[in-house]
Specification:
The protein is 35% helix and 25% strand. The chain is α/β, with parallel strands linked by helices. It folds into two domains: 2-40 and 202-263, 3-Layer(bba) Sandwich (FAD/NAD(P)-binding domain); 46-198 and 272-340, D-Amino Acid Oxidase, Chain A, domain 2 (2-Layer Sandwich).
Length: 341
């Protein structure tokens, strides 16, 4: 059975792996000149069921409003003449009630826990190396009131299988010495013992090589998916920058590009892009650097150690398909890095 997987990020490559394991003749299409070079490379690198809260929460509308007024908020929106933004935005705002946020968080948590189990099984089976750190993750709070509020918030995840421990500032510094010089700046942290981190791009690249070399998956790089051809309720072909391809099955794994391609087949997907910002810093030999991944709950900056590099991420900006950036977009990351690290 021939299957085309559209997209060479971590989801597309992992899907290709399992389909090939199940006996499919798989071809994977990727527009870039390598695998895992977009969202798979730019994400926080944290595997975090312990932080699987729905973005659509009672706090989100106020953050979006402040961002329109110029504030540097963790979630922000840039208005544009784009009807898809407003249609998606209405659906997002409808989910920003306490009841729906709780329900959506639990749905997301179950998906995260399942994904983590599958990832762990795959890594054990194949012995993949991807700069993994399996010491849990720290969710850092700057004052006691925020820590206590975080404990109440995290209790929902603990009730549904996440193992956590509460650490004061001294215990945080003992666990990871990078915080010793700045422990007076923090009240403490919640550590989720099951969370971990790793280099998603490296994972994707190495799994892709395994798929190609051992499982016979055909990987076509530099191949842009332009459209789907549909007949009735089925997809008949994929139009690419190289040619028109056919298969028995088609998997759409183009991330935020999926709704654009799906619309060519008359399918509407409730997906709108969120742009994040990341910076990766080389570490000085013998210098003090974090050994455990985490998130600063004040500025919502995430960090993860990727071998001899430190990767920091921040901000989710609803700005359509705009790939541009300005130095100001990295203010949260730099402010946090200078303050804590």
């Amino acid at each position: 059975m021939k299957t085309l997987v559209l997209g060479g990020g971590v989801v597309g490559v992992t899907t290709a792996y399992f389909l090939a394991q199940a006996g499919h003749e798989v071809t994977l299409l990727e527009e870039k000149d390598g695998l895992g070079l977009e969202a798979s490379a730019g994400n926080a690198g944290i595997i975090a069921p312990g932080h699987s809260f729905a973005w659509a929460s009672p706090r989100a509308p106020a953050m979006l409003l402040r961002s329109l007024r110029g504030a540097e908020t963790p979630i922000r929106v840039r208005l544009a003449p784009d009807p898809h933004l407003y249609l998606w935005g209405i659906r997002f705002l409808r989910e920003c009630t306490a009841t729906r946020a709780r329900r959506n968080t639990l749905v997301k948590l179950r998906l995260c826990q399942y994904s983590q189990r599958v990832l762990n099984e795959l890594v054990r089976a194949e012995g993949l190396e991807y700069e993994a750190i399996t010491k849990g993750a720290l969710y850092l709070y700057r004052n006691r009131a925020e820590l206590e509020a975080g404990m109440k918030k995290m209790a929902l995840l603990a009730e549904h299988g996440q193992k956590q421990e509460i650490l004061d500032a001294g215990e945080v510094a003992k666990l990871d010495p990078v915080f010793e010089p700045v422990k007076t700046k923090i009240a403490g942290a919640i550590r989720d013992l099951g969370d971990s981190s790793g280099d998603s791009r490296l994972f994707t690249e190495r799994l892709g090589a395994l798929c190609r070399d051992r499982l016979g998956v055909t990987v076509k790089l530099g191949c842009r998916v332009a459209a789907l051809r549909a007949g009735g309720d089925r997809i008949d072909a994929v139009v690419t920058s190289d040619s028109v391809l056919t298969a028995d099955n088609y998997v759409l794994a183009l991330g935020v590009g999926s709704p654009i391609v799906a619309r060519t087949a008359g399918v509407s997907l409730p997906i709108y892009p969120a742009k994040g910002y990341s910076s990766t810093f080389p570490l000085k030999p013998g210098g003090l650097a974090p050994t455990i991944p985490g998130v600063d709950e004040q500025w919502l900056v995430g960090w993860s150690r990727l071998g001899d590099r430190l990767h920091l991420t921040s901000t989710a900006e609803f700005a359509g398909y705009d790939w541009g950036w300005t130095p100001r977009d990295f203010n949260n990351i730099l402010r946090f890095a200078r303050d804590v690290f």
